[in-house]
Amino acid sequence: MKKPNVCFIIEKTTDIRFINGLKDYFNVTILARKRKDYTIVPWQISDEVKTRIFRCNRLLYPLVLFIWIIKNGFGFDVFIVNSDTLAGVSVNLAKYFLQKPMVAIIQKPTIEYLYARYCKGHIGAIQYFLLHNIIRLLIMWNIYHFDLSIVVSCYIKSKLSRYSKREIKVIPLYGIDNVFKPLPSDKKRELREKLNIPLGKYVIFISSRISPEKGIYSFLKAMKLLIKEGIKDIILLNLSGQYKDFVKLAQKFALKEFIISRPAIIPYNLPPYYQSVDLCIQPSLYEGLGLSPLEALACGTPVIVSHAGGLKESTIHMVHSLHFKPGDAEDLAEKIRYAYYHRKKMKQMAEVGKRWVREKYDSKMVFNKLETAVKQLLK
């Protein structure tokens, strides 16, 4: 069977690994809105992928999408959208004209992320009340109308299954690529020198952006507690699109001297950083799945995650990683303290986690599942 023609609609952003995975299994055309900082992703997209970029604001984008799909959609076999809100509405309305399968890829708990913004004071009570109800209605309507909803974790499935009797498949896209693998221990020093990461320090990697749902404040509070009690050979390594903001926030906690913060790099170049550090932490208050800890485990690096959302199911406490109570800086500090003083035990758990990741989250396996699910719709 020839590759199906897929139209992939991006609501806000996506990951280059998802685009590359799609192109290996489908003939892909991407629809996206022009952003200030970059167009689709801040990395080079393969010439095999066609793109159509719309120059419009966020509110006008769904209408522009709808019109374009109605005019040009008959050449596609299936539409995939990474949205359960406005862009999803455009796709589902267009379905009544095109009679083509519409698939949603849902990777985050939208309402929970909104609640995190409210709790941090980013939006007021009235705005939260209005947005909560509007978004909830959009999600309900979309999930009912999508031919197939694919979610990255059982956690998100539990949130959405109440809205529709249609099948919701759990496929942890985009999975973990084979470039994430361990490095021989005798090469670690050489790698740190190459990456300009201090030798003789306990280096903790965190790639989370500074967003209300990511729990960065509790992470920095935990680090402050540990440093106050005398553990001062810790270095925090942050690679993110908000690396400058991370430094400014660390300054408020008097942690600047303990920070190495650098721009985000192409995901395929991340393995050396995971391989060179001692610990990876994801402190999210809410999370759809959380791929960074899985990437770290695939590289044999110990992990600590919050016991929240999809992170609760992606690893098992004291088997693959350590879990802590979301937002609890003292609990997180306790878990970091344990990892710091029990490095051999943490490496043993990471070894078990490495096998777990390969069995459940291998990228080739998850894209095979996506291909099977899409082709079943086309029969």
Q: Give the strand line-up of the largest sheet.
A: 3-2-1-4-5-6-7
Indicate the overall shape: globular
Low-confidence stretches: none
Structural class: alpha/beta
| Strand residue content | 15-25%
- Would you state the CATH class of the largest domain? Alpha Beta
Q: How is the quaternary structure best described?
A: single chain
Give the domain tally.
2
Q: For the residues shown, what is the average pLDDT? A: 94
* N-to-C CA distance: 11 Å
CATH-defined architecture of the largest domain: 3-Layer(aba) Sandwich
Largest sheet: 7 strands, parallel
Helices, by number, come to 15
Primary descriptors:
379 residues; alpha/beta; Rossmann fold; 2 domains; seven-stranded parallel sheet; six-stranded parallel sheet
Describe this structure as you would to a colleague.
The chain is of the alpha/beta class. The chain has 2 domains: 5-175 and 363-377, Glycogen Phosphorylase B (Rossmann fold, 3-Layer(aba) Sandwich); 185-360, Rossmann fold (3-Layer(aba) Sandwich), CATH 3.40.50. It has 15 helices and 13 strands. It has helices spanning 16-25, 61-72, 86-98, 110-119, 125-145, 154-160, 188-195, 216-228, 243-252, 271-276, 291-298, 311-314, 329-341, 343-360, 363-377; strands at residues 5-9, 27-33, 50-54, 78-81, 102-106, 148-151, 168-170, 202-206, 234-240, 259-263, 279-282, 303-306, 322-324. Helix 2 packs parallel to helix 3 and helix 3 (86-98) runs parallel beside helix 5. The radius of gyration is 21 Å and the shape is globular.
